[in-house]
Amino acid sequence: MEKTYKNTSINYVFYDNKSNINLIYLHGWGQNIEMMMPIAKPFIDKYNVLIIDLPGFGLSDEPKEAWTLYDYADMVNFFAKEFKLDSPILIGHSFGGKISICYALKYKTKKLVLLAAPYDRKITKPTLKMKVFKILKKTPFASLAKKHMGSLDYRNASDMMKKVLVKHVNTDLKEEVKKIKCPTLLIWGTNDEAVDYNDALVLEKLIPDCGLVTYEGCSHYAYLERLNQTVNILKSFIGSDK
């Protein structure tokens, strides 16, 4: 399905279960909806679940100008209003996690789940396609990655998305995250080469109400490498809609 925002056609999937709990999933750089489906499917028959192809990726158009992270957060809020997803729980991986931080700083957010989300300028370039395949080749998600992951790093991104990436990398939220008011959960792999695990240790201390789940030996895609554990943790963190 598609909606238009700021003259940009945006692809999404939405599962409406008339629930009191609203989940919004935001994928990482160069990825799309399908990379979030493994941790969304367990909830699509119970809660209201929205997954978006972030503009510039998947089946969504590129933005017509170089959006900031807050522009992306405003886009997410547009969808939240459209579907009446009041005070959502945001679940974001990497780039999507940084957008989720911006959303939580600007809009009412019930809870926040950050999967290896950068928050300052110490981010490396997004993981290259072949590097990701190497990381995931021993997991059940190698075929998923091969089919659905893009390879839009800075080198081969379009001119517009290069500008977006520069804005993303240069946005430092280290001081801003101290203002996050909602309960926040971090899930991180100790072998993350894109966003260092030490950043998770710092972020846990910066956000007032925050907990860290550590996956020993896992990569930037730890949430997939230990899928069952991730789903169980999310179920516990999300709670009941009663």
Walk me through this protein's architecture:
An eight-stranded mixed β-sheet has the order 1-2-4-3-5-6-7-8, sandwiched between helices. The protein contains nine helices and eight strands. The protein has one domain: Alpha/Beta hydrolase fold, catalytic domain (Rossmann fold), CATH 3.40.50.1820. α2 crosses α3. It is α/β, with parallel strands linked by helices and 242 residues long. 46% of the residues are buried. The chain is globular.
Which descriptors would you attach to this protein?
alpha/beta; 9 helices; 8 strands; 242 residues; globular
Please give the structural blueprint.
Blueprint: E1 2-5, E2 8-15, E3 22-26, H1 37-40, E4 48-52, H2 69-82, E5 89-93, H3 95-106, E6 111-115, H4 129-136, H5 142-148, H6 159-169, E7 184-189, H7 197-206, E8 210-215, H8 222-225, H9 227-238
Parallel strand pairs: 3-4, 3-5, 5-6, 6-7, 7-8
Antiparallel strand pairs: 1-2, 2-4
Helix pairs in contact: 2-3
User: What is the rounded Rg?
Assistant: 16 Å
CATH class: Alpha Beta
Q: List how many beta strands DSSP finds.
A: 8
CATH fold name: Rossmann fold
Average residue-wise pLDDT: 89
Architecture per CATH nomenclature, i.e. the level-2 architecture: 3-Layer(aba) Sandwich
Q: Strand order across the biggest sheet?
A: 1-2-4-3-5-6-7-8
What is the SS-derived class?
A: alpha/beta
Specify the number of helices. Answer: 9
